[in-house]
Here is the input.
Amino acid sequence: MFHVSRITHHILMKLGVDYYPEHWPQERWAVDAKMMADLSLTYVRVGEFAWGLFEPSEEEISFDWLDTAIDILRNEGLQLVLGTPTPTPPTWLTANYDVLQRDERGIVLNVGSRRHGCANNPAYQIHSQRIVTAMAQHYGSYPGIFGWQVDNEFSCHRTTRCYCDHCRRAFQEWAQKRYKTLDHLNEAWGTIFWSATYTDWSQIPLPMYSSAQQSPSLQLDFRRFSSDSWVAYQKQQIDIIRKYAPTHQITHNYMGLGDGNVDQQDYFDLAADLDFVSWDNYPQGAKGPDDIALNHDMMRGFKQRGYWVMEQQPGVVNWHPYNRPVPPGQVRMWSYQGLAHGAEAMVYFRWRAARYGQEQYHMGVLRHDGSKTRLYDEATQLHAELNRLPNISRTPAEVAILFDFSDWWTIQIDPHQHDFSYHKQVQAIYHHLWQAGISVDIVRRGATDLRAYKTVIVPSPILIDEAELETWQHYVESGGRLAITCRAFVKNQSSVWTDQPLPAHLDKLLGVKLDEYLGIPPDMECTVSNVAQTDIQSYQLWADVLEPTTAEPLMVYSNQYWAGKAAATMNKVGQGVAVTIGYLSEPFFASSVWQTLGLNELALPFNLPAGVEATRISFEGGGEGLLLLNHHESQTTVEFSQPVDALLSEQPKVTSLPLAPFGVEVVRW
Ligand code: GLA
Ligand code: ZN
Here is the structure.
């Protein structure tokens, strides 16, 4: 068994655990630390819910117990990540000050849980800053500290948007900063509609419970404001930590994205002030293996650099209606999936299953009784393998998907078709690329340099950005392949419809005009085909009916009254091509579109079995290959088009490679 402090060579991805020493008797801490060291862990995260223990009554602050725990851990060679404890204000605080959030109906989010504090509440801010200052002063030069996690999962339990009086006043100030005068605001929001003209800033409401919808403009800005509120709240803590602990790294633990669940916080904005992004990966909450992969790529994209998994599902969890078994090998495989997408650390949540509280059925690396689960052995195996493997890295992606939270929110607020989802569209695009073994970067809309990518896909950029249009024009002219999907450039940044013909300002680049846009309800059967009518697909939810000006049709609608009209087109511009895709289908790309975008050249030269994930990797010092993951509980065989060396199982020159259930392999061409 390795001891952490004795490892000198490069480790591809470091391992760690989330630990709550305060849940266990002090005599146990040395045993835990020794077991962690035996497992060759590097990082331990502590503290993020312990405010009440640090500050048992107002301004009586002590970190003695944590010092003892940290000393024991660091003496075993472990490095600490300190969570600031602000997601769980102490009970004296919530009893003495009204810091609680209010929901859309004004109902208070009660104590006894977590994340109930309001980001705009002055008392919550003051007390948060006080505890973080004390902590940062105390630990700024304490030995054994790697860095900080600010708070825990902002927006978890859908708590980004609060509707209390503090938030209403803060929103009015935010709006005043953005629009300067009431005339500007009234014009920008189109308040003339339904007699909503504001004559005083204090009249501006929050989009609370009401008879019919609230203005989409007000709703979009409220969403931006709410996201900004937590960015500012996080910044208050970051400023304090940087002041007293300037050498420490700072992160926040994000969540995997999804409609109606994790969709409230602009994660690009939140990333701007952090040193690196980390996230909490509970794969059983994802739609499938490709959705986990998409989340990993998102996390890499939010800061365009390596990231951490700060909480990795260790086995069975507690928070689904039905909590599925996690078979042997699956957590090891999920860990490799992180490595494949650029995770620099894999931290398992949690070290030991809790005996009390809300998460008793949540497994850990250790059981409730302190004995090892099979994850302990899997992590041991993983660490040994990571040490044995040559240095590899992801081969840079040649395809980018441009992503934007304001587009997502704008469509959520007024989807026109109930199931039309910006995020699901991204998932469908990604799924198709993932299946072909094509690596993808997620890039924020507005990026001004896309030259690194052979193909760029922009899903439903509903909000107009004329500056970005220039970037796209240059990208295509100089040889880029750009695809823009339905509902492009419809509204201005305040969610007001353009007075230009659709797609506003894009018609030259795309070489099309929009004849009409049609929402497709689920009971309508609609089909598209290629021009030769040899490839027919059904589509759902949306049809942008295109009228080519300079573009050529790639796909045409093939039934309903708009049959014969263009559904997807390609426009040659300079050295490149601009593709318009007017409908949503599964699989997302028709083969004529796939070819035009050059995706056939980027796909693997052999078919991957469904549920097998392949990531292109480069070996340090030269050489290319794949990291293969079998997401199936049964053996699956991959047939290559040329012999490969399988490095983990040490088999030279194989063309047919059986992957064990949840098996992993690193192959070199
Ligand atoms: C989240 C939280 C943790 C814990 C886990 C349980 O990710 O950050 O505190 O509640 O879920 O799965
Ligand atoms: Zn509030």
Residues 216-244 form the longest helix (29 residues). Residues 7-161+228-392 form a domain with the TIM Barrel fold (CATH 3.20.20.80).
